[in-house]
Specification:
This is Chorismate-utilising enzyme C-terminal domain-containing protein. Helices cover about 30% and strands about 40% of the residues. It has about 325 residues and is of the alpha+beta class. Strand 14 and strand 15 form a beta hairpin.
């Protein structure tokens, strides 16, 4: 079962009755690819609500912070050591926030389909999805594209999204440098495949309770180079770091958990476009608990308290939209 909604659209989709590979979830390390087959069809809100994908136990929302602010601070300090030793600009570190819904006396249980619809309402410009496959349930959504390819014109779009602050704070060198590392990397890749790259000015991207810095890129490419561009782009320094192999190794040794689909991407092929959405603000759901995956770019200027707060704010994208009934 897969339900999704494209950015800035009010139409929900699912897949039906065909062997065509239409949607694929690629893990952060690119080693796992989960394919969903079928033709893309519309699905109503009522039909979504009638799907049963909610964990079965009765539950209420109680948060148990497995990763504490102190343990995350130790990891941030390891990330800084790694950055210094390897003379890096940044490394993207993440945590898995554990959310328990314990059986208390309440009659309430988590409805993932209603949560999905609420999440979609809260983030209208995001690509949002909910899937259940091979005993895994994931929900997520964000507005960052790794790529969008127009099959008719061969136009390719991508973006550099990084740096995070609460809406009322002003950008500092830390966020500007963090996002510039992503912008430089993306430009260097696209220029190898296209001679007419256009780069926008850098703007704010508002995402619920927080904002990011965003630069857009457009270029004409040959359809044959699309797969290569995507595999070179992923994982960008917005979710990993540069050089990517070294940073991915550093992340693995510091984080101590498998990111799975978090910070991977989702490929969606429609009649006109091939989209590659960055899989952020996502969670995997189990019977009594969920893992909310949240991270942020660490630089030598990072403040441990602010980095923790950033991941807490990011976790609210999913957490504040969970519906218990
Ligand atoms: C890695 C995440 O965010 C990325 C996207 C936007 C801003 C980011 C940042 O400020 O660090 C990250 O690069 C995440 O949300 O887990």
């Amino acid at each position: 079962m897969l339900i999704f909604r494209l950015p800035d659209s009010e139409v929900f989709h699912t897949l039906e009755n065909s062997q065509e590979k239409q949607v694929s979830f690629v893990s952060f390390d690119s080693k796992t690819v989960l394919d969903f087959k079928g033709s893309i069809v519309d699905i109503t809100k009522e039909d979504i609500e009638n799907q049963i994908v909610s964990p079965k136990n009765k539950s209420s929302l109680i948060e148990i912070g497995k990763e504490t602010q102190e343990s995350y601070a130790v990891k941030i300090s390891h990330a800084k050591d790694f950055i210094e030793k390897n003379e890096l600009k940044k490394l993207v570190l993440s945590r898995r926030k554990l959310l328990m819904y314990l059986d208390v006396d309440s009659e309430k249980k988590l409805s993932l389909t209603k949560s999905f619809l609420k999440f979609c309402d809260s983030y209208p410009s995001a690509f949002c999805y909910l899937f259940e496959k091979n005993n895994e349930i994931w929900m997520g959504g964000f507005s960052e594209i790794l790529g969008k390819f127009d099959k008719k014109t061969n136009a390719f779009e991508t973006m550099s999204v990084a740096g995070t602050l609460p809406l009322d704070e002003s950008w500092t060198d830390k966020e500007i440098e963090e996002q510039k590392a992503v912008t430089d990397y993306i430009q260097s890749i696209i220029r190898k495949f296209s001679s007419n790259l256009k780069v926008s000015s850098t703007k704010d991207l508002i995402s619920g309770n927080i904002k990011h810095l965003k630069t857009d890129f457009t270029a004409e490419i040959s359809p044959e180079s699309l797969d290569k561009i995507i595999s070179e782009l992923h994982p960008t320094p917005a979710v990993c770091g540069f050089p990517k192999e070294l940073c991915a190794q550093g992340i693995k040794s510091i984080e101590h958990f498998n990111r799975e689909f978090y910070a991977g991407y989702i490929k969606v092929e429609t009649a006109d476009f091939i989209y590659y959405f960055v899989n952020l603000r996502c969670a995997s759901f189990f019977k009594n608990y969920a893992f909310l995956f949240v991270g942020g770019g660490i630089t030598l200027k990072s403040d441990v308290h602010k980095e923790w707060e950033e991941t807490e704010l990011k976790s609210l994208a999913i957490q504040n939209n969970l519906v218990f009934e």
